[in-house]
Amino acid sequence: MSHVFYRNPYKKYPVVARGKGVYLYDRQGKRYLDGCGGAVVSAIGHHVPEVVEAIKAQLDSVEFAHTSQFTNDPQEELAELLAERAPGGLDFTYFVSGGSEAVESALKMARAYWVQMGRPEKWMVIGREQSYHGNTLGALAVGGNLWRRAIYEPMLYPRPRVAPCYCYRCPFGRHPESCSLECADDLERAIQEVGPEKVSAFIAEPIVGATAGALTPPAGYFQRIREICDRHDVLFIADEVMTGLGRTGAWFAMKHWGVVPDLMCLAKGLAAGYVPVGATMVHHRINDTFHNRRNVFQHGHTYMGHPLAAAAGVAVIRYMSEHKLVDRSRKLGKYLREQLQAACGDHPHVGEIRGRGLFVGMEFVKDRESRTPFEPETGFHNLVGDAAFELGLILYPTGGTIDGRRGDHVLIAPPFIITRSQIDRLVEILGRALERATKQVAGRG
Ligand code: PMP
């Protein structure tokens, strides 16, 4: 009997034995093509010797020293590498151990900033529907992933949520030709409703991951969001936990639109799964406020700035830069989307294939013409994910929310080192998995 408290006690998990490149192997020797980097984590593939060596070397000097007592070389270097690559002005980095911690830190830093600016009434953070920012209570409260929130609802402080930019199911009934960015203006409405004097920040994923299958915003969306935030003295937090570090074909997704957030959350690709790590990047305006007023940011976690995590992060960024992997993510992402479109684009249950770089989402529908979703109990995304897993391909079935119901998507986000022929194989297996799932659903009548 296992003593592990599993995420899903009814599921049989194979034991992972080793990884190499884009593949994971279980104890029985079965090989899996990692088509999603786990949960959009493994950006450079498994067992990259340079990264493994860098972590070992750090272990040989010092494994841990608390950040209230010491800084350490790898965290200094990682902060510098990030500042060189981030949107201009995001010059400082606050290190933590994962995405939820990065978001919690950003929410509290925004609040602490306004307190220092003499505006202590500003505390509320506005988020969007169909969003996910983490499972800790603060992060869950600003997110709009209804099924992840459901049983914790009484524990989550209430605050407004605004419309997502979900062009495939536009909440304002618009089409690309008639779009005038009502979804962005919805933020203005919400700020006015609660009163700008109460709002400290707005948080959004640049391209929505876990709740909506790589939802990309319409042109001009984040520029409009930036204007609205500036007009009302509201900080803009970009949650780049999934999209950061090259995943969308730029070092950070906000760079696609030339928009500089005030705070930017990172995790996943930062150390690409080699060691848990997260970070909140901070605009120098905010950092200066703390510095000039000699104020301590009242927050912190034991493992922040952990030397092993930072050493892994440094090695990962160096590896990505040396091998031009961000560029590769952009180019191969385009190839992946083209191949998926050609192979599955006309499938009766494929509603839309979308995304940017090697961050691709596929939305499933019961009926393609009317875009009618499957009944939530069908769990089509899980049927596809399970069939693919059996066939040796790992996908990330996300099943977020559509119009308040559980949605149907898979994320496809392989390591950037994937080759064209491995992409062809991925697409071929995905196609077979889709057929199996379709037969299963048809068989149920
Ligand atoms: N923000 C986003 C955009 C995420 O996708 C996730 C994780 N899927 C998180 C935050 C939370 O990160 P973690 O699971 O590392 O706490």
TrEMBL record:
Named cofactor requirement(s): pyridoxal 5'-phosphate
PROSITE patterns in the record: AA_TRANSFER_CLASS_3
InterPro entries: Aminotrans_3, Aminotrans_3_PPA_site, PyrdxlP-dep_Trfase, PyrdxlP-dep_Trfase_major, PyrdxlP-dep_Trfase_small
Molecular functions (GO terms): pyridoxal phosphate binding; transaminase activity
Xref: Gene3D superfamilies: Aspartate Aminotransferase, domain 1, Type I PLP-dependent aspartate aminotransferase-like (Major domain)
SUPFAM superfamilies documented for this protein: PLP-dependent transferases
Family matches, as PANTHER family: AMINOTRANSFERASE, AMINOTRANSFERASE CLASS-III
Entry's family note: Belongs to the class-III pyridoxal-phosphate-dependent aminotransferase family.
Protein name: Adenosylmethionine-8-amino-7-oxononanoate aminotransferase
Organism: Thioalbus denitrificans
Source lineage: Bacteria, Pseudomonadati, Pseudomonadota, Gammaproteobacteria, Chromatiales
